[in-house]
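Sequence design from tokenized structure. All designs in this work follow the same two-part layout: the structure record, then the generated sequence. An example of the structure record is given first.
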């Protein structure tokens, strides 16, 4: 079975989106958890963006030694130099250079001709390779780039020393058949050169980021760029947990394996929610509070007889705590704090008091408070996201 690399960009594409910024300590905590999860590359930031970003990448690279660390740079010398500086302490650095290649971006955003773009790509990759062993090149807006020009871009990037070619659907415009066809075309043109990995990076503007990523896998891509909880620019990136669980559940169909420890998915998702304060929708695939809840009587009956009737993955597989929750009216706050910790929450004293109040109120109505009830309460109370707070403010206004 072919192995597929998971490139996590939670700390870069995810972190740069509104409401998801993290300080350096939080980035390091998250990076350690991503290493535990088993991702193949951690993209830690965009060093030219600020001194803080550069320092954060340096610190992540210093602290996390067992996973390659990537830093992003535009195809400009000051950008690339900043990324090289940030990656200097890394055990396994990866320089990630990008340039937009669609005519629209070249004309409107960069004011560059195609020839100038090819020249910038070649010279910056060569410059990067003098300092960093592994260089990835991304053709931004590849999904809307003329396919012949895209092939030429790839040939030039490989010729200059890039060993990973990422062809993003930057604006989330592609549909699976088209996105897969783009990779097939490029592979055919390049003749599958040894040592070069094709990579997909999809956005969810039309809700197809995961589907497009999987179509890319079918077309021979062996690196997927994704984020925990699918956070990222606008509607977000492909959700890491959805990609890897789909590949695991439908292993025979895809024929690739990843190094992800699935049981770390739920704790990782909860840690990100806790750090950023942005909660996951209850109906979110794989890690939502309701992802394993069964409400309808017919479904509950089936699950009791055999979980396979309505569950294609068990909650334990993705790390939802197996221990059933026995939180009654008489449970203490310490037991509650431990249960919350199991779920990845570290409540403040005030938050714990509020969760406790709601749990005991619920226990008055129903004998036991179940695991999913606690998840729902914790979602509502602990470090609620800006969206939830804004919605509350709007509804009381
Ligand atoms: Zn992106």
């Amino acid at each position: 079975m072919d192995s597929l690399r998971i490139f996590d960009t939670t700390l870069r594409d995810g972190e740069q989106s509104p409401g998801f910024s993290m300080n350096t300590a939080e980035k390091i905590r998250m990076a350690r958890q991503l290493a535990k999860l088993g991702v193949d590359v951690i993209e830690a930031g965009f060093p030219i963006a600020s001194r803080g970003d550069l320092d954060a990448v340096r610190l992540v690279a210093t602290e996390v030694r067992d996973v390659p660390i990537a830093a992003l740079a535009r195809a400009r010398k000051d950008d690339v130099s900043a990324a090289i500086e940030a990656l200097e302490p890394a055990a396994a650095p990866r320089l990630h250079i990008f340039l937009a290649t669609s005519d629209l971006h070249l004309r409107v955003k960069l004011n560059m001709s195609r020839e100038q773009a090819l020249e910038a790509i070649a010279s910056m990759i060569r410059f990067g390779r003098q300092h960093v062993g592994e260089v990835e090149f991304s053709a931004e807006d590849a999904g809307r780039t003329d396919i012949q020009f895209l092939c030429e871009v790839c040939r030039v990037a490989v010729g200059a020393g890039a060993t990973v070619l990422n062809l993003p659907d930057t604006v989330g415009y592609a549909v699976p058949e088209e996105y897969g066809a783009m990779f097939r075309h490029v592979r055919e043109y390049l003749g599958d050169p040894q040592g070069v990995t094709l990579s997909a990076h999809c956005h969810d503007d039309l809700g197809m980021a995961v589907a497009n990523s999987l179509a890319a896998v079918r077309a021979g891509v062996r690196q997927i760029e994704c984020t925990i909880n699918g956070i990222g620019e606008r509607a977000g990136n492909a959700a890491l947990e959805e990609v890897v669980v789909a590949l695991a559940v439908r292993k025979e169909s895809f024929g690739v394996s990843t190094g992800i420890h699935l049981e770390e998915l739920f704790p990782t998702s909860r840690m990100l929610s806790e750090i950023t304060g942005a909660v996951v929708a209850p109906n979110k695939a794989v890690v939502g509070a309701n992802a394993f809840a069964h409400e309808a009587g017919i479904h509950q009956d089936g699950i009791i007889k055999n979980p396979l009737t309505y569950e294609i993955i068990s909650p334990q597989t993705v790390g939802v705590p197996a221990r059933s929750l026995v939180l009654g009216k008489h449970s203490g706050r310490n037991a509650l704090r431990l249960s919350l910790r199991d779920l990845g929450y570290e409540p403040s004293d005030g938050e714990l008091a509020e969760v406790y109040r709601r749990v005991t109120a619920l226990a008055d109505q129903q004998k036991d408070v179940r695991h999913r009830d606690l998840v729902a309460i914790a979602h509502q109370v602990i470090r609620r996201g800006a969206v939830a707070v804004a919605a509350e403010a709007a509804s009381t206004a």
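The CA atoms of residues 125 and 396 lie 54 Å apart. We note this feature because it recurs in several other targets discussed in the main text.
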